Amino acid sequence: MEDCKIIAITNQKGGVGKTTTAVNLGVGLARTGKKVLLVDADPQGSLTVSLGVKTPDELPISIATLMQDIIDDKAIPEDYGIIHHPEGVDLIPSNIELSAFEVGLINVMSREYVLRDTLELLKQNYDHILIDCMPSLGMMTINALVAADSVMIPSQASYLSTKGLYLLMRSITKVKRQINPKLRIDGVLLTMVDSRTNNAKTIINSLRQTGDNLRIFDAEIPFSVRAAETSIEGKSIFAHDGSGKVACAYEQLTKEVLDNEQRQNNRSRSEERIR
Ligand SMILES: Nc1ncnc2c1ncn2[C@@H]1O[C@H](COP(=O)(O)OP(=O)(O)OP(=O)(O)O)[C@@H](O)[C@H]1O
Ligand SMILES: [Mg+2]
Fold first, then answer.
1. What is the pLDDT of residues 181-234, one digit of tens each?
2. What is the structure's pLDDT at 231?
3. CATH (domain of 118)
4. Hey, which of 12, 13, 18, 20 would you mutate to test ligand 1's pocket, going by the most ligand atoms within 8 Å of its Cβ?
5. Ligand 1, atom 14: closest residue by C-alpha
6. DSSP letter for each residue of the chain
């Protein structure tokens, strides 16, 4: 498959809906017929649990195992460690081992490239790879930014502090300048939006003040306990409450991601023609 898109879902702020977005955007894309791989890049293993693995720490193979094999120059067998979810997405799980692995990365040559090299082997089988980052800007998140084509930043409207965003943008800009020039920012996804208190204008204005002209996705994910329930069940919102407002919002986000991609592809094609 040509043109696999790799999206890092990231925000160093905890609990803003990164994992929930990885699951539901992933399943959303799979429902349109795309082949999707979800990568859990968080030692908490929340994405792994959200996709039905009750005890991630007992898994024999995880993202840390795969990345270690890449460092050790070992061949990775087809489908190695990949979990197939009934809703049509594949998962590379994670668990607590990623914590120690990340510390050990410090001593590895080309330590920023390990995830990219790991995904390079898998890319051909997928249309989309979504990386669920941990809430930090450490080496694992840098690896995700190096591996990615673009970044999606989920954020609760109330948490959109200019300072937090500034730190994130600084990491992204640094990776873009030094390692991965093609990295794009898809935009900020507003999550857990409470329509009664959310003042979209104030938020957008404060974002503009960061000077980065950040795009905000038209799709907004409403606050709903139904969304919180899905992670316990190991299902997406589509399977849990398919006609609810959160499913509807994630469906809209899926469409927006696909539309943006289409636009991006057309643009690069016409740029090629000019050259
Ligand atoms: N739209 C929503 N409405 C209500 N609750 C939500 C919604 N989206 C996510 N949640 C809940 O909020 C909590 C945090 O969400 P999630 O785990 O997706 O965030 P995260 O950014 O991945 O967190 P972490 O930084 O710890 O990885 C979870 O309990 C989740 O079920
Ligand atoms: Mg998470």
1. 999 999 999 999 887 665 655 665 666 565 556 788 999 999 999 998 888 899
2. 83
3. 3.40.50.300
4. 20
5. 15
6. ----EEEEE--SSTTSSHHHHHHHHHHHHHHTT--EEEEEE-TT-HHHHHTT-S-GGG-S--HHHHHHHHHTT----TTTTPEEPTTSEEEE---THHHHHHHHHTTSTTGGGHHHHHHHTTGGG-SEEEEEE-SS-SHHHHHHHHH-SEEEEEEEGGG--HHHHHHHHHHHHHHHHHT-TT-EEEEEEEESB-TTT--HHHHHHHHHTTTS---B-S--PBP-HHHHHHHHHT--HHHHHTTSHHHHHHHHHHHHHHHHHHHHHHHHHHHHHH-
ipTM (interface predicted TM): 0.99
| Full residue range of the structural domain in which residue 213 is found | 5-274
Q: Work out how many domains the chain is built from and give that number.
A: 1
pLDDT tens digits for 76-129?
999 999 999 999 999 999 999 999 999 999 999 999 999 999 999 999 999 999
Total-model pTM: 0.95
